[in-house]
Amino acid sequence: MISATELDRAETLRFDPLTGIIAGRAPTSRYLVDVGAVFADRQAYTQLVVKNPLVYEVTQVEEHNGDGQVHYGLGIIYPGKVGSEYFMTKGHLHEWRPAAEVYIGLRGRGMMLLEDERTGECRAVALAGNSTVYVPGYTAHRTVNVGDEPLVYWGILSSAAGHDYGTVGERNFRKVIVEKDGRPVVMDRDEFLRELEA
Ligand SMILES: [Fe+2]
Q1: What is the pLDDT of residue 1?
Q2: How many distinct structural domains can be found in the chain?
Q3: Ligand 1: distance of its center to the CA of 30 in Å?
Q4: How far is the CA of 198 from the centre of ligand 1 (A)?
């Protein structure tokens, strides 16, 4: 039997898929200075950080905790680039490494970088409106806006997952997504860094 306590968790939230805002909830805003260390082109970063544009916002719904509960959040990444590297999230692993996550694209054109922490294998997959991405456990994930309008998406995961930003912050992802001839291209970070130095 479902207890009244469980039914008390039932809720309706209203959200706007165009703005990425959940009614009545304040987003966490990440400006370039907050995200900066992840971008490869340090010269382009130094030039753009003077303006410190808003890169992305996330509104987390995390009040249900404990066995069987889920957390979910609405993200919006604004269009833009640092040099030729598209605006993106910092990226993270889950503290509870086996925890998977489902991303649901609502608007825009994006990609996700997925990197298996155990093997180092890194893949890019598409995340756009009307599509989902399954992020397996043990996988660092970063969302990238490769379009010219905001990229809006949900992420849904176990309440026990937790976020580990530090590990990704230290070593970053092995691949970058950069614009070449007006199109997004996935490159090895080391190769891109060599291009920047040349
Ligand atoms: Fe996640």
Answers
A1: 56
A2: 1
A3: 16
A4: 35
The tens digit of pLDDT for each residue in 151-176 reads 999 999 999 999 999 999 889 999 99
pLDDT value at residue 15: 97
Q: 93 alpha carbon to ligand 1 midpoint, in Å?
A: 6
Tell me the CA distances in angstroms from 116 to 56, 98, 180, one per residue in order.
24, 11, 26
Compute, in angstroms, the gap from residue 94 CA to the centroid of ligand 1: 6
Give distance in angstroms: CA of 150 to centre of ligand 1. Answer: 19
Instruction: Give the HSE-up count for residue 97: Cα atoms under 13 Å, Cβ half-sphere.
Output: 6
pLDDT tens profile 111-152? 999 999 999 999 999 999 999 999 999 999 999 999 999 999
Domain of residue 82, CATH code: 2.60.120.10
* Domain coverage including residue 20: 4-197
Residue 67 has φ and ψ, to the nearest 5°, of: -50, 125
Cα–ligand 1 centroid distance for 40 (angstroms): 22
- In this prediction, residue 2 carries a pLDDT of 56
Residues 117 and 167: their CA atoms lie apart, in Å, by: 10
Ligand 1 centroid, distance to 4 Cα (angstroms): 30
